[in-house]
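Re-running Heat shock protein HslJ to confirm reproducibility after the cluster update. Everything else is unchanged from the original entry.
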Amino acid sequence: MTLVYGPLIGREGSPLGKTYLSVSVQEDGVERALVPGTRIRLQIRKDGVLIARAGCNSLSGAIVLDDGVLRVEPGVQTQMGCGPEFEAQEDWVFEFLLHEPEWAVDGDTFTLTNGRITLVLLDRRLAEPDPPLDGTLWIVESVVRDKNHVEHYAGVVPATLTLNGTLATGSTGSSPFTATVARANDTLTFTDLSITPTNPTGRAAALEQAFLGTLGTPLTYTIESNHLHLRAPTRTAGLNLFTDRPDGYPPRRLLAGQR
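Result of re-run:
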């Protein structure tokens, strides 16, 4: 028996430490359509944990890759109600993964098959390149207070941020603003912030205060897929933002349900 686990991290031919997105799903030799705007996403962490998403919910569990067979020990499956079409898709995808499909890696392609269903996936870096920092409409998903405290603002218009060189524009969700942004490597510093006040109340006011307060400190940024993470010098506080992907996934209604 050949264990493809831990020892092959970073080597050619190992899927560990990578994220893959579906580019083809065939059943009995015929292309099987997915729910419009969705893709199957498999994150295979370096610690040997698989996180699978098929439209709305996720399945995670420890894996062992034995002799070309993927074995998943189911751990956690989220249970958001996203509608029958999403639930039906997740049911067959998760069942497929839990019934020990064969796997193969060929360059940037990861293939899973059980003889009837063949799932072909491509490395996320090629299937879904990171969008540029500048010129992208970034939408605030959450405000991070510390590593144990993340605030979501359900039921209010989200704050937005767009960068273009030294100019930052956007909205607090209620009030438009402009600012000057200076850059040093991966750090952004916002100054000369000008806001057109609209005097929001309730949760909208709380979002505006939290958003503007975060922009008042230098922020380091990282981009992964369609997510932008801004972090204060402590690295434990900041903003999580996203932008719509070219394929329109995830549907905005799902994101709204998670905020």
